[in-house]
Design goal:
Layout (H helix, E strand, L loop, with lengths): L1 H76 L2 H7 L4 H10 L10 E5 L6 E6 L2 E2 L2 H5 L2 H9 L7 E6 L4 E8 L14 E7 L2 H11 L5 E3 L6 E7 L5 E8 L3 H9 L7 H34 L9 H11 L8 E8 L1 H8 L1 H16 L5 E8 L2 E6 L5 H10 L5 E3 L2 E3 L2 E8 L6 H17 L5 E3 L2 H23 L2 E10 L5 E12 L2 E3 L1 H11 L2 H16 L6 E5 L2 H4 L4 H12 L6 E6 L1 H5 L1 H13 L3 E7 L6 H7 L3 E4 L1 H5 L7 H14 L4 E3 L5 H10 L3 E2 L10 H12 L1
Parallel strand pairs: 15-16, 18-20, 20-21, 21-22, 22-23, 23-24, 24-25
Antiparallel strand pairs: 1-2, 1-6, 2-3, 4-5, 5-6, 7-9, 8-9, 10-12, 10-15, 11-12, 13-14, 17-18, 17-25, 18-19
Helix pairs in contact: 1-6, 1-7, 1-8, 10-11, 14-15, 16-18, 18-20
């Protein structure tokens, strides 16, 4: 019996040992399986996390690549000099010197194309410094992009496009002035493109940790990829790169030790958790870097417009003092870029950025809104003038850049946030104040006032009234006699614009500058010229003088329009004199010279108006071949002031006589002035003494009286 008991105990122990062993084996197998499953899952997760990171990085690389070329295109397209040059006959040469030649070795783009306002004519097209045919290189998609980008005021149009040699990023934007006045005509379009070459991909690879990055027509098995789409959303290629697979690397390293012991397994799990934590931290840091880049300007390191608006939103509802926003625009920055190049301009931007952020203790943030426009956010009780004087003081002394002395100034517009005011409204108000400051001259500081909005509304209403007045003939031509100084006989008439509005007469000193600013001066000029000629046809023996705005004369179509109008009305060009001020000789002398020469060929004469009140030189009088010089009324009125006015006047007339240019004196109000002018050699007189501006009917009646 004892043996049975012993046998049973042994069996029981054996069974227990076997059971325990089996259980241990099963538990070990389960634990091993679980551990293996955990390790495999973590390895796969690590791969997926890194793959997701890499995919985001690839998209970020494409976005950054597009953003850089887009910013470069905007810097070159929204440029007053470019706008003027591309509208001139020398557009092709200018485009080659500034863009085409640069493409030969410029890192930011490989080619530059300028398409004319008609959307098809090629003004300039260079790739790597050599001419090429963009239509053949890019295909029909290129001209679809040009059509989309041609609208004035539209931002850059960004598009990946398939070319003869691969894939390129092309950015197009209308060539336009920095600050457009009124509606612009259809514009030329500048396009810059950059090929996605292996060198470019290598740079993107290094910047975004995408080793092995390349382009493939379709996704490739075993490789990560992200599509590249064109303007229509069609996939034209893929960026592909191998996965780093960090999880697999870790798994292969620890695989031989997985079954060795739980401790090793725990250590491995600890290592995997550590790797995961490091990876998460790295991804978090990348996310923070991306947020920083989205809210900061890459050149200056300051906040960009998006970052500034986000900061102002954070201030909403806070208890501390409401922020005051200052917009600072550099005076003369364009001249720096033109004289020394964009590299020096970029250095100046960085210097100014550092100076602005540290200019005052209450300047809690600074931003660069684009080009040479900056913003400062003030929180505190310092007076507005204190901040303005501090900022203007930064520009009191010239800047030194690589041995160059750079002088720029600044204009400032400011606005304080009121209750429930949105950041966009605050920015708009400061921008309006800045616009007024720049209108008032260099180095000015203006605070927003509601009157600015009311004035803008009044100007908008006045523009509408002016447009209607031109179309319905409410602006009339009045005529002031021009008489011979020796005989007193009326030899000609000067046409003057008069606007009789329902609310009362509006001075030409108001509506003519308004017409120039809002783009109505050409329509007003044609209306006045046509109306004046229609009346002057009835006065056969008299010449007709009509004032021409510098804006009109700088229009390349002006000469052809005048000649066409003369033919239409059958008016003798030799009876017409166009009066221009010397301002046109300084703003655009080449175009002025072309228009003058063209019109003089058909017999039209030109008079230099208001001589003596500006900067016209003897050289200008000779160069432009004026047929007559009109002495400014300020020289005539000086005759009654008891100074040396008579000597100055005689010297001016002697100058014209030496150049064999006849002289008209305007603004004559008394017989003493007329006598002095006759004696000095002036051959034609004009003024209230001779006759005030009169309607066409009054002029006709006066001429009939004289004839009788």
């Amino acid at each position: 019996m004892s043996s049975n008991l012993a046998g049973g105990h042994v069996r029981t122990q054996t069974s227990s040992i076997i059971t325990t062993t089996v259980c241990f084996v099963l538990v070990a197998l389960v634990l091993t399986g679980l551990m293996a499953h955990v390790v495999v899952t973590m390895a796969r997760s690590a791969n997926e996390i890194d793959d997701a990171r890499a995919t985001r990085a690839a998209r970020a690389a494409i976005a950054a690549f597009a953003s850089r070329l887009s910013a470069t295109t905007t810097d070159n397209a929204v440029w007053d000099d470019a706008y003027q040059a591309i509208s001139s006959p020398a557009a092709a040469d200018w485009a080659y010197e500034n863009w085409g030649k640069t493409s030969a070795d410029y890192a930011l783009y490989d080619g530059a194309i300028v398409i004319g306002p008609d959307g098809s004519s090629i003004i300039s097209a260079y790739a790597k410094g050599k001419p090429f045919e963009p239509g053949a290189f890019f295909g029909d998609a290129f001209y679809r992009q040009i059509d989309k980008a041609a609208a004035p005021g539209r931002g850059p149009v960004v598009n990946f496009i398939k070319t003869e040699t691969g894939i390129a990023l092309i950015v197009s934007q209308a060539v336009q002035p920095f600050a457009a006045q009124g509606e612009l005509p259809k514009l030329s379009v500048l396009s810059l493109y950059k090929d996605l070459t292996p060198e470019v991909l290598s740079t993107l690879s290094g910047e975004h940790e995408l080793e092995g990055l390349r382009i493939a027509a379709t996704p490739e098995a075993g490789l990560l990829s992200t599509p590249i789409t064109d303007m229509g959303g069609d996939v034209i290629g893929h960026l592909v790169w191998p996965s780093k697979a960090p999880g697999n690397t870790v798994f292969h390293q620890v695989y031989p030790y997985v079954a060795a012991a739980v401790i090793i397994l725990v250590m491995f799990l600890g290592g995997v958790l550590l790797v995961g934590a490091i990876e998460a931290r790295r991804l978090h840091q990348q996310a923070q870097a991306a947020i920083f880049q989205a809210n900061h300007d890459s050149l200056s390191g300051l906040l960009n417009r998006h970052g500034l608006l986000a900061l102002l939103e954070e201030f909403e509802g806070n208890d501390f003092s409401s922020p005051r926003l200052f917009l600072v625009d550099l005076d003369g920055f364009k001249a720096v870029n033109d004289a020394w190049g964009h590299a020096v301009g970029d250095d100046l931007i960085r210097i100014v950025s550092r100076a602005l952020i540290a200019c005052h203790p209450e300047a809690v943030a600074a931003a660069r809104l684009g080009g040479d426009e900056f913003a400062l956010v003030q929180i505190g009780n310092a007076a507005r003038k204190e901040i303005e004087e501090t900022v203007l003081g930064l520009f009191a002394e010239p800047f030194k850049i690589d041995g160059r002395t750079i002088e720029v100034g600044a204009s400032i517009g400011s606005a304080a946030r009121e209750e429930d005011m949105t950041p966009l409204e605050l920015l708009r108000r400061a921008d309006m104040a800045l616009y007024r400051a720049k209108e008032n001259g260099r180095g000015r500081a203006i605070e927003y006032d509601p009157e600015l909005d009311r004035e803008r509304q009044r100007i908008a209403e006045m523009e509408g009234l002016l447009k209607s007045a031109i179309s319905n003939g409410a602006i009339e031509a009045f005529f002031q006699p021009l008489v011979s100084a020796s005989t007193g006989v009326v030899t000609g008439l000067e046409a003057l614009a008069r606007w009789r509005a329902p609310t009362g007469n509006i001075s030409p000193e108001i509506f003519i500058p308004l017409a120039e600013r809002c783009g109505l001066i050409d329509a007003l000029g044609v209306h006045m010229l046509k109306t004046s000629i229609e009346h002057a046809k009835n006065w056969l023996d008299l010449t007709l003088s009509v004032n021409v705005s510098p804006v009109q004369l700088c229009n390349p179509e002006f000469a052809a329009e005048v000649i066409s109008l003369l033919h239409e009305l059958d008016f003798d060009p030799k009876r017409l004199t166009l009066e221009i001020t010397e301002g046109v000789l300084m703003t655009n002398p080449e175009q002025a010279r072309r228009s003058i020469d063209h019109l003089k060929q058909v017999g039209i004469k030109f008079a230099l108006d208001d001589f003596g009140c500006g900067y016209a030189s003897i050289g200008a009088l000779r160069q432009f071949g004026f047929d007559r010089m009109k002495i400014d009324r300020s020289l005539v009125s000086a005759l009654d002031q008891g100074s040396n006015g008579a000597d100055v006047l005689r010297a001016t007339i002697s100058l014209a006589t030496a150049l064999q240019i006849p002289v008209t004196a305007e603004g004559i109000e008394n017989t003493r002035q007329a006598a002095i002018l006759r004696e000095a050699g002036c051959d034609q007189l004009q003024g209230y003494l001779i006759g005030k501006p009169m309607s066409a009917n009054d002029i006709s009646a006066k001429l009939q009286d004289h004839a009788a």
